[in-house]
Every structure is written in structure tokens, then in C-alpha cells.
């Protein structure tokens, strides 16, 4: 396990020393095979996460270098975005990335469908869901390119008081 | 009205009740006189023989019948809280009895209340307390309970004294200490009343636990203050010294901590006892009640806080008792507790009403009563605001204005105050009757008036808040996504923060306590149960696949079970006759749909609006609900089953499927660097391979996935072999149940695809009629996994050895090499 003391607190995270210590303990606890990184299976060993439809997306966003595993640095940076001290734009960015699966900066029709599918499951049929996605994009898409950019996303979601909703107690 | 009809017999009973006491007096003499002269009597009327238990049973019967009566009219109970109805009923009954008999018959005596009626309610509260939430907010709760109650008592008492000094109250024989005594007993928020009202007002869980916890924990403060001031009053005002005051403060700590300790000790004993009750299953539930009750009585005996004792007994023993006793015993305990608590609460409120009808106790002093009401409300509000302001500097999740309003308004007084005031000694406290009358008025006001109005108030405030931004389609969608994201983050970092203690505690618990207090079988079976689930899952998966082979592909995927009325057949075009009007939807979807009436009403005008409405409606209904929303915490009157296991199962299976797909893609080298790394790591981490696990699998539609053919051959071969599971030594890595679905398009190499528009899909999808023009088929075809495969949590053991070619030199691959040849002989089943 990496030496968390060797990571400077100013790791662009919003945490103070205590929180980082506690998070590192949590990391160690989750890291069942002591490999120093968290794989998806290790995340999934938490029963509550198995029941969360968006977990895979969240883990993918944590995994910034795309190697399939979340190391400690990614873990800290990822969870830091949800700190109460985080900025609203950071949180919006996170939420945007949930939808933007290929990380190209736009939410396409297919991506939105995928994520909604995760959230709706089989309660809706695919063509019904597709209708929903189309309407959503039409409502949001200001420049008419058929995709949702981050600006368009923020404009719509801004009213939800994201920074209050996406604030976890660490 | 039926309600009155049901109460008819109750009236009859009551009249009989009032007549009987007199009859009793009359009976005895002739009975006695005749007894000597008549010899043997075949049948006698022995009223006095059964009098006491008979009357008790009759009262319980009346109360229960009254409950039935109330619930016959749903409209009434949705507006008026049950406690208010019961008080009114009590008043009426008391009036009848008094009119018939001119005596105040039955009152709520402190003994009856404190020894028989209060313990079940508090035990029920403690046993079903959501521990994690409670201890998570313990600091807040303690602050409100202790400081808040002291503040209330002091300010109320002193203000009343101040007003008395100003002469507004007229001539009363009271001193400062009397006022403080009164303040202390009227200050406490009552758990019975709070629960009774909050159950009907659905507030968020944090707010609920704060008010509820406060009402439970303030008992210690109330007891101490009450005893202290009562002994001061007994001593006489001038003889109170500083030492006595210090002793009072010390006694607070002793009483509260001592009561808690007694509760914990009895919880320990209870858990220990239930560990050994394997052979006496029938009386297992009895232990729970007896030992909890003993904790109450013991603490009362030692003059410690009995409510705290029984609360903590319930809180602490929950986990171990539930693990140790059998399923049936657990159900018995739950139901009995709910029954006792509910019954006790009913009786309490009814008796409060009856006891009020006693002209002897009434002494009216307008100023006193009015001012008391004003003071307690105002000071509570001020206290809440001040404390919240302090707390919000230390809390992560802030308490907002609406929360504070609910907290101050929900500070109801109840029977505890009444019982305490009746306990006063009228020789020491000269104006006891005034206090009693005032207490009764206060209780009636808070329970009836505040109980009636709190629900509309909350709704009005909430509606007011959300009116600022109308929830648009996008907002709803994304809001729900955010909830899920936050749930995930909270779970990932779950036990952090002030949960350092929680971690410590769970370690301690795991190492020592569970070993002592939980049955060995319970400790072990935590894992074994998972295995059983696992096995069941597999068996279902096998049979499912077999079914699929028989019946063919797509239709099978979409609607396997015959319960579903909707059978999606991709081949036939949808009938496009009926336009979905509001009423149509309403008619068609009565059973499963919760209609969003607001959106329905707003959008009745045009077709486009109808379409919007349908969309909103489907969104509302079909988005998975995040964790916090659907788990309703505590209910006095209901044992809520977990109705949303379905959702959990579904999500779980979906997740497992996705994991499996990505794993499969890794095997094919689709995303080599990422997935192969995972695969490799998994190989390293695990010791054994289970080679004989069949997998539920669906025949694939798209020809992209032609490797599935091979997989299917391999995997379908072993339905008979029992799966071998690794023991719990598996280093906790997740292993999958192999389920492949159409969603493999997710990880296809061509980037993010919209599976609906995959070219392989049946083109008739596009020609299908849009939803608003089709008959309301919003009843969902249940996915096979949801219906047939039971919920399998936790660690799946890896089942499928995936392999691409038999020429691999990996050891685990080679191990299965021999099986591969035998599988190749199996015929390919349906594959479209």
C-alpha cells in the first residue's frame, strides 16, 4: 500500500490531513488483495454498491488513467470532488462525466441512452427510453449539434443546487 | 356511518361498565344473605370476583374497537392524527361515565402509566431504532435533549415566575421552586406523542431521528430536574444550599449514565441468553420481553433513568438477538412488540381524555394556562434556532429552516408530563390542581392542534420551496442520477469521518462481542447464506437457460413469465388504435402505477402535453429509487416489508452482467490493455478455479458476438455437476455469475453504441408506434433475472472459465482443457 504520508496534502484535494488518513484506512480496507489499487471487484465487495446502478460509471471516472484500477491518488482525487468544500463546477464536471462515457466532452445520444438504461433498467422498453432520450436532448441542446456539451449541461442542471446534493460527509 | 355502528357496542359496553360498579354494591348483600339460607346455587353472578381483570380487558377492547372505527374512514385519518382522535374519544367516554355515575371512574394513574404502558412503547422504539443513523447523529441529539430541555425548563419556569410576580395571575400559593418544578415537567418532549404524529408526516430521516432521539434521551434530564426540584420543594425554599445544587448536577450524570449502563448490561445478558436458547425456541421471544422489562424495573429501583435503560437495552441487543433467535421467534418478537406498543399508545391517549373529565381536579387560571402555552412554544422555537445555529458550524449536513420549523413545531408534550404532574404531592405543592389542569390543556393543545396542523404545514413549506424551480424533465433525470452517484460515493467512503469510532466499534464487535454473544452457527452462516443464495441462483439460471433453448430468443428475453400481460413480440407491429388519454392510462395501470397527479393535472390539454405527461409519469415511476428514499425507517403500526428488493436484484444482476461482459471482452482481447490487466490480476489473486459451473446464458442476437457459441457449448455442459465453491478464503474478490445479454454492445470495439440502433436489431423497432399513441403498456415486462433468479448478494464465486482457445498455456486454462472436447459435441441450440 502506498505511503499516504508521502502524498502531499496539496494533492489538489479538498481534504485535510485527518480526512486523508481516514480515507487511506478506508482504501486499505477496501483493497482486499493488498495490491495497492482497487479493482472493480473490490469495490463491488460492498453490498450497497452492488445495488447502485451507477457504480460502474463512478469507478470509471475515478480511474483517470484508464488502467482499470483505482490507485490511491485517483481515489483521493475522486472522492475529494464530493467534499463539502468542493466547488460546484467540479461536481458538475463529475456529473457530466458520468454521462460522457467516451470522455470526448460531449454527451451523445447513445451515451445518454446507456446511462439512462442503467438507471431505469428494464422498467422501460428500449424504444420508450429512446424517446425519452431524444426529448431530453432536444430540450437541452441549444446549438443543435445533437450532443450535449458541458455548458449546455450546466445550464440545465444548475438549478438543482448540485453542490448541496453532491456533498458527502467525509 | 359504519364508524358509529362499530362504536355502538362500545357505548353499550360503557354503559354497562358504569352500571356495574353500582350493581356490584347491590349484589353483595343479597348474595350474602341468600347464601346462607339457599344452600347450593347452580349459577351465581360473581362480579366482584372478576371485577379488576374484567374492567381492564374491557378497556383494552374498547380502545381497540375505537381504532377499528377510526380507520373505517380513510379521509378522517389522513387529516387528523390518531392520537387526537383517541383523546377526543376519551373525553367523550369520560363524559358518559361521569354523566352516568357522577364519579370520575378511571384515571391514568402514574403507576399504571410508568409500569405498564410506557415500557412497551419505549422498548419498541429502542428495538427498532436505526442504529447507524442514531449514533451518527448522537451529538446533535444529545445537545437538543440535554441543553434544549434544560433551556426549556429554565426559561419557562422563570418566565412564569416573572409573570406571577407581576401579579397577572392573581392570587396563587406558589413559590419560585414550584414554578421551576412545573417548568421541568412541562418542558420535556414526549416520545409517545412525537412518534404518533411524525409517523404520519414523512420527514427526512435525519430530521426524524433527531426529534425522536431527543424525545427519548431527554428523559434523563426530566427525571433529574423533576427529582431535584421536588426534593427542593420538600425541603422548603429557604433551605436549599449550593451543595444541593451541585449534587443536582452530579445526579444528572449519575442518572443518565447509570441508566444507560443498566440497559447495556441487560442487553448483554439478553444476547447471551438467546445464544443458548436453541432448544427452547418456543419461549425465545419471552426472554426478550422479560429481560428488557427487568432492565426498566431495575433502573427504576435504583432511581436511575428507566427510559434510558430500556431504550439502550433495545438498541444494543438488536443485532445479536436478531442473529441468534430463529426466524419465527424474530417474527413473533416483532409482532408482539408492535402490538404491545400500539396498544399501549392507544390506551394512553384514550385515558388522557378520560382523565380530563374530573371536575375535582380542574382549576382554571386563564393567565397561567395561556402563558404556559405561549412560553413553551416560543422558548422551544428560540432554543431550536440557537442550538441549530451552533450545530450547523460543526455539522456537515446542515439543518435548514424548514427542518428547524418542523423541530420546534414537533415538540409535543404528552402523557409523561401528565403522569409526572399527577405524582406531585399536593401537600408540598399547593397548587397541584392548577398544574394538572394546565398540563392537560397543554397536552391537548399540542397533540390535537399541532398534530393536526403539522402535516399541512410541512407540505406547504415543502411545496413553497420547490415552487421556486419547477422540476423539468432534465432536472428530474439528473437529480435522480445525482442521488445514485452520491449513494455510491457515500458507500465507497462509507465509514469515514466521525465513523472512526464506528470502525473501532465494529472491530471490537467482530473480535470479541460477536464471539461471545452470537451463536457460532450465526457467525458462520453469514457466509454460508451467501453460498446458498449462490446455489439457488445457479440452479435457476440453468433452468432458465434450458427454458430459453426451448422457446427461442427474443420473445423469451423480453417476456418470459406468464404473469405479464405484455408480451413484446418484435415481429408484429404494434396496434395503433387507442390514443392514450389520461383516463385510459388511469384505467390500465391501476395496480402498479403511482400516478404523479400533479403532472397529470397540469398537462391535460394537448397531445404534446399528454406526451410530456406520459414521459414525466414514466420517469417518476421507472427510475430506480436511490437508497435513502425508499427505505422507510420506522413505523409504529406497520412492519414494512422490503418492497424494493426487486430493484436491488435487478440492478445487481445488471451490474453483474456488465462486469461479465467486460470480462468476456477482455478475454477476446477487445480492450486488451484495460481488461486484460484486470483479468490477469484476477488470476493472480485467486487460488482455485471452479471449472464446472454452468451459466445462465441467453442466445445472442447480434452476430458480433459469435464467440458466444463456443461459450455456450462449454457452459451448458454441466448442469448436473454441483458447483464447488471455494470457502470463504477467497480473498473477497468478486466473481461473477456469467450472464450474457444483449447489452454486450456496450463494450463493443466500435465505440459507444446505442444498442437500440444497432444494425443487427430488428428493424421493426423503428416502425413502432410512439408511446403516446399506443395502448398504455406501461406495465413492465419483467426481465428474466428479476423474476426468476433470487437475490444473490455479495461474493459470487467465479464460475466460468472463459477461454478462447484450447492452446493457451495458462495453468487454469489447461485444467479445463479436457472438458472442452467433450463439450464440442453438444449441438448448438437456438441462436438467431
UniProtKB/TrEMBL annotation, chain A:
Transmembrane segments: none annotated. CDD domains: EFh. InterPro entries: EF-hand-dom_pair, EF_Hand_1_Ca_BS, EF_hand_dom. Residues 18-53, 55-85, 87-122, 128-163 form the EF-hand domain. The keyword Repeat applies. One of its GO terms (molecular function) is calcium ion binding. Keywords: Calcium, Metal-binding, Repeat. It comes from the Eukaryota. Regulatory subunit of calcineurin, a calcium-dependent, calmodulin stimulated protein phosphatase. Confers calcium sensitivity. PANTHER family: PROTEIN PHOSPATASE 3 REGULATORY SUBUNIT B ALPHA ISOFORM TYPE 1. Belongs to the calcineurin regulatory subunit family. This is Calcineurin subunit B type 2. It comes from Camelus dromedarius.
From TrEMBL, chain B:
It is a multi-pass membrane protein. GO terms for molecular function: potassium:proton antiporter activity; sodium:proton antiporter activity. It holds the Pfam family Na_H_Exchanger. One of its GO terms (biological process) is regulation of intracellular pH. It catalyses: Na(+)(in) + H(+)(out) = Na(+)(out) + H(+)(in). Residues 682-704 are annotated as: Disordered. Residues 60-460 form the Cation/H+ exchanger transmembrane domain. It comes from the Eukaryota. It is found in: Apical cell membrane; Early endosome membrane; Recycling endosome membrane. Keywords: Antiport, Cell membrane, Endosome, Ion transport, Membrane, Phosphoprotein, Signal, Sodium, Sodium transport, Transmembrane, Transmembrane helix, Transport. NCBIfam families: b_cpa1 (TIGR00840). Plasma membrane Na(+)/H(+) antiporter. Exchanges intracellular H(+) ions for extracellular Na(+) in 1:1 stoichiometry, playing a key role in salt and fluid absorption and pH homeostasis. Major apical Na(+)/H(+) exchanger in kidney and intestine playing an important role in renal and intestine Na(+) absorption and blood pressure regulation. PANTHER family: SODIUM/HYDROGEN EXCHANGER, SODIUM_HYDROGEN EXCHANGER 3. This is Sodium/hydrogen exchanger. It comes from Camelus ferus (Wild bactrian camel). The lineage of its organism: Eukaryota, Metazoa, Chordata, Craniata, Vertebrata. The gene is SLC9A3.
Amino acid at each position: 500500500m502506498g505511503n499516504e504520508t508521502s502524498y502531499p496534502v496539496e494533492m489538489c484535494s479538498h481534504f485535510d490531513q485527518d480526512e486523508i488518513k481516514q480515507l487511506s484506512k478506508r482504501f486499505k480496507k477496501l483493497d482486499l488483495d493488498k495490491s495497492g489499487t482497487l479493482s472493480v471487484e473490490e469495490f463491488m465487495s460492498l453490498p450497497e454498491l452492488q445495488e447502485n446502478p451507477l457504480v460502474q460509471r463512478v469507478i470509471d471516472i475515478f480511474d483517470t488513467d484508464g488502467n482499470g484500477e483505482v490507485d490511491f491518488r485517483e481515489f483521493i482525487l475522486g472522492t475529494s470532488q464530493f467534499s463539502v468544500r468542493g466547488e460546484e463546477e467540479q461536481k458538475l464536471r463529475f456529473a457530466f462525466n458520468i454521462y460522457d462515457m467516451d470522455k470526448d466532452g460531449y454527451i451523445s445520444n447513445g451515451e445518454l441512452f446507456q446511462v439512462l438504461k442503467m438507471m431505469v433498467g428494464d422498467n422501460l422498453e428500449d424504444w420508450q427510453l429512446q424517446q425519452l432520450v431524444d426529448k431530453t436532448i432536444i430540450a437541452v441542446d441549444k446549438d443543435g449539434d445533437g450532443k450535449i456539451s458541458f455548458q449546455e449541461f450546466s445550464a440545465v442542471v444548475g438549478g438543482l443546487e448540485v453542490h448541496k446534493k453532491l456533498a458527502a460527509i467525509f | 356511518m359504519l364508524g358509529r355502528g362499530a362504536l355502538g357496542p362500545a357505548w353499550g359496553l360503557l354503559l354497562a361498565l358504569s352500571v356495574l360498579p353500582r350493581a356490584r354494591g347491590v349484589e353483595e348483600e343479597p348474595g350474602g344473605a341468600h347464601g346462607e339460607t339457599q344452600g347450593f346455587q347452580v349459577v351465581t353472578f360473581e362480579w366482584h370476583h372478576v371485577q379488576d381483570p374484567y374492567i381492564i380487558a374491557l378497556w383494552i377492547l374498547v380502545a381497540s374497537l375505537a381504532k377499528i372505527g377510526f380507520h373505517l374512514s380513510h379521509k378522517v385519518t389522513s387529516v387528523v392524527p390518531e392520537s387526537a382522535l383517541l383523546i377526543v374519544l376519551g373525553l367523550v367516554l369520560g363524559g358518559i361515565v361521569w354523566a352516568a355515575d357522577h364519579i370520575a371512574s378511571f384515571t391514568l394513574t402514574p403507576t399504571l402509566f410508568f409500569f405498564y404502558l410506557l415500557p412497551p412503547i419505549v422498548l419498541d422504539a429502542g428495538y427498532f431504532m436505526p442504529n447507524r443513523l442514531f449514533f451518527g447523529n448522537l451529538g446533535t441529539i444529545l445537545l437538543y435533549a440535554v441543553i434544549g430541555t434544560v433551556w426549556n425548563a429554565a426559561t419557562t419556569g422563570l418566565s412564569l415566575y416573572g409573570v406571577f410576580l407581576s401579579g397577572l395571575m392573581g392570587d396563587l400559593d406558589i413559590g419560585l421552586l414550584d414554578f421551576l418544578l412545573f417548568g421541568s415537567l412541562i418542558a420535556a418532549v414526549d416520545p409517545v406523542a412525537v412518534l404518533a404524529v411524525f409517523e404520519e408526516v414523512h420527514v427526512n430521516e435525519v430530521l426524524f431521528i433527531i426529534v425522536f432521539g431527543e424525545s427519548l434521551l431527554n428523559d434523563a434530564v426530566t427525571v433529574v430536574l423533576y427529582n431535584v426540584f421536588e426534593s427542593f420543594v420538600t425541603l422548603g425554599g429557604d433551605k436549599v444550599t449550593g451543595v444541593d445544587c451541585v449534587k443536582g448536577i452530579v445526579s444528572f450524570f449519575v442518572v443518565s449514565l447509570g441508566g444507560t449502563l443498566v440497559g447495556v448490561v441487560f442487553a448483554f445478558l439478553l444476547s447471551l441468553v438467546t445464544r443458548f436458547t436453541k432448544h427452547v425456541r418456543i419461549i425465545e421471544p419471552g426472554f426478550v420481553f422479560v429481560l428488557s422489562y427487568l432492565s426498566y424495573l431495575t433502573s427504576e429501583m435504583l432511581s436511575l433513568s428507566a427510559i434510558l435503560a430500556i431504550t439502550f437495552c433495545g438498541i444494543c441487543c438488536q443485532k445479536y438477538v436478531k442473529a441468534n433467535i430463529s426466524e419465527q421467534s424474530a417474527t413473533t418478537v416483532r409482532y408482539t412488540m408492535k402490538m404491545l406498543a400500539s396498544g399501549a399508545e392507544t390506551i394512553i391517549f384514550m385515558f388522557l381524555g378520560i382523565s380530563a373529565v374530573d371536575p375535582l381536579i380542574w382549576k382554571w387560571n386563564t393567565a397561567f394556562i395561556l402563558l404556559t402555552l405561549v412560553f413553551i412554544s416560543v422558548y422551544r422555537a428560540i432554543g431550536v434556532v440557537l442550538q441549530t445555529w451552533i450545530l450547523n458550524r460543526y455539522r456537515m449536513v446542515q439543518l435548514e429552516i424548514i427542518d428547524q420549523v418542523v423541530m420546534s413545531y414537533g415538540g409535543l408534550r404528552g402523557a409523561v408530563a401528565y403522569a409526572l404532574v399527577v405524582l406531585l404531592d399536593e401537600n408540598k405543592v399547593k397548587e397541584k390542581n392548577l398544574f394538572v389542569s394546565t398540563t392537560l390543556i397543554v397536552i391537548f393543545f399540542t397533540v390535537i392542534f399541532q398534530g393536526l396542523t403539522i402535516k399541512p404545514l410541512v407540505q406547504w413549506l415543502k411545496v413553497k420551496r420547490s415552487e421556486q424551480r419547477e422540476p423539468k424533465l432534465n432536472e428530474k433525470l439528473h437529480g435522480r442520477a445525482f442521488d445514485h452517484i452520491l449513494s455510491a460515493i457515500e458507500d465507497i467512503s462509507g465509514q469515514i469521518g466521525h465513523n472512526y469510532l464506528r470502525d473501532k466499534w465494529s472491530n471490537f464487535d467482530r473480535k470479541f462481542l460477536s464471539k461471545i454473544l452470537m451463536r457460532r452457527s450465526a457467525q458462520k452462516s453469514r457466509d454460508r447464506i451467501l453460498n446458498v443464495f449462490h446455489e439457488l441462483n445457479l440452479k435457476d439460471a440453468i433452468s432458465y437457460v434450458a427454458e430459453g433453448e426451448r422457446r427461442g430468443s427474443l420473445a423469451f428475453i423480453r417476456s418470459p413469465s406468464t404473469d405479464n400481460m405484455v408480451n413484446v413480440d418484435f415481429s408484429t407491429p404494434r396496434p395503433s388504435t387507442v390514443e392514450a388519454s389520461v383516463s385510459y392510462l388511469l384505467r390500465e395501470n391501476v395496480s402498479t402505477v403511482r400516478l404523479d397527479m400533479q403532472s397529470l393535472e397540469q398537462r391535460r390539454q394537448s397531445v404534446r402535453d399528454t406526451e410530456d405527461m406520459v414521459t414525466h409519469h414514466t420517469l417518476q415511476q421507472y427510475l430506480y429509487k436511490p437508497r435513502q428514499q425508499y427505505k422507510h425507517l420506522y413505523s409504529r403500526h406497520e412492519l414494512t416489508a422490503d418492497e424494493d428488493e426487486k430493484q436491488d436484484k435487478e440492478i445487481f444482476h445488471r451490474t453483474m452482467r456488465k462486469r461479465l461482459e467486460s470480462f468476456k471482452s477482455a478475454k477476446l482481447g477487445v480492450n486488451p490493455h484495460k481488461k486484460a490487466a484486470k483479468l490477469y490480476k484476477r488470476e493472480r489473486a485467486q487460488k482455485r478455479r471452479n471449472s464446472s459451473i454452468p451459466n445462465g446464458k441467453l442466445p445472442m442476437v447480434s452476430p458480433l458476438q459469435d464467440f458466444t457459441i463456443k461459450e455456450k457449448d462449454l457452459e451448458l455442459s454441466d448442469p448436473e455437476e454441483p458447483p464447488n465453491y471455494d470457502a470463504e478464503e477467497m480473498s473477497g474478490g468478486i466473481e461473477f455469475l456469467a450472464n450474457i445479454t444483449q447489452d454486450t454492445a456496450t463494450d463493443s470495439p466500435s465505440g459507444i453504441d446505442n444498442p437500440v440502433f444497432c444494425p443487427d436489431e430488428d428493424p421493426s423497432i423503428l416502425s413502432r408506434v410512439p408511446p403516446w399513441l399506443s395502448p398504455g403498456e406501461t406495465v413492465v415486462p419483467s426481465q428474466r433475472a428479476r423474476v426468476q433468479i433470487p437475490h444473490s448478494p455479495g461474493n459470487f464465486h467465479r464460475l466460468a472459465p472463459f477461454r478462447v482457445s484450447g492452446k493457451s498455456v495458462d495453468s487454469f486454462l489447461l485444467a479445463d482443457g479436457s472438458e472442452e472436447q467433450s463439450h464440442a459435441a453438444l449441438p448448438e441450440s437456438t441462436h438467431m
